[in-house]
Amino acid sequence: MSRSVIQGLPRWTLVVPVLAFLDLVLSWHRHLGTVLLILVCVGLGAAVFAAVHHAEVVAHKVGEPFGTLILALAVTVIEVALIVTLMASGGDKAASLARDTVFAAVMITCNGILGLALVVGSLRHRVQGFRVQASYSALTVMTALVTLSLVLPTFTTSAPGPRFSAAQLAFAGVTSLVLYGVFVFIQTIRHRDYFLPVSPDGDVDEDEDHHAAAPSTATALLSLALLFVCLISVVGLAKTVSPNLEHAVQSAGLPLSVVGVVIAMLVLLPETIAAVRAALRNRLQTSVNLALGSALASIGLTIPAIAIASIWLSGPLVLGLGGKEMVLFALTVVTGMLTLSTGRATLLQGAVHLSVFSAFIFLAISP
């Protein structure tokens, strides 16, 4: 590796991914004592910050909206692999894992990440602008995907319980993949300008980081490779910590679904930090792209993957949401429509989204 490539990145961003991956290898399928648990938690946090840095390097090189798309896709692909692995080894206990994970991702991204970005951005810049065309397009696709994949199974009758039949699951998987593919085409090719950051005067800001020189191609490729190493470490270390979380949750008398929520929040930490930092730089459109794009990637890739995996998975697959979850989803859609309808965001919208997210967390703990 050339010296110029290494000099293009801070030293800690080169060391942390390697150490985090070694941490994952040493702790994989092992009982975590106090010392090893601390090391895993430290490695998890360090990997998150390194992932955010490398994602921003790649985003600076390729520009928007490709940068946010890469981060969302990278996290989601690894998350899907984790879900399928857990379902394959979990049996009947993992029947609702895909549903709970996808729904948690939707609530975290559309209320938690978006709300936090709106709050911190408005506290610094008072009012921030974004593109209605992009935000509404993403919200429309997200609403259709969640309804077709997670709401309809509660009301279909071909299979017992809130489940799809094999044909219905195949249809949902194909539809999800097609809708997500069309959205990515619109985002990156057909109407790319809709998803570009908005400058303070309201014009398209294609050069988001015009004040800094773009990294070299070699540096960007190295950051892309290290990004995947970091994300694999984040998801793997989160899975490693999950038994300890499960034991703590059971000891506290809380529902096991809380474990899924905590794991989803850990996995989505890189996108959360990236979205908040973009909002602080008055690039709210980037934050919106990250939040809604992550929700779309989670649904659009998870459902097809689960549909394919169901061919060899022997356990049941529960996809239908309960009444409480459907109310929260409806509230999220309505709130999102009102927030994204003006192209301007203030502290109030952020507070509303964080309130909905708080309700989701509270009801997960106290159903």
UniProtKB/TrEMBL annotation:
Major site of localization recorded for this protein: membrane
Protein name listed in UniProt: Ca2+:H+ antiporter
Record-annotated Sodium/calcium exchanger membrane region domain positions: 33-188, 223-365
Bilayer-spanning residue ranges: 35-54, 66-90, 102-123, 135-155, 167-186, 220-238, 258-280, 292-313, 319-340, 347-365
Keywords: Membrane, Transmembrane, Transmembrane helix
Molecular function as annotated in GO: potassium:proton antiporter activity; sodium:proton antiporter activity
Coiled-coil ranges per UniProt: none
InterPro entries cross-referenced by the UniProt entry: Alkaline_pH_Ca-Antiporter (IPR052946), NaCa_Exmemb (IPR004837)
Organism: Kribbella jejuensis
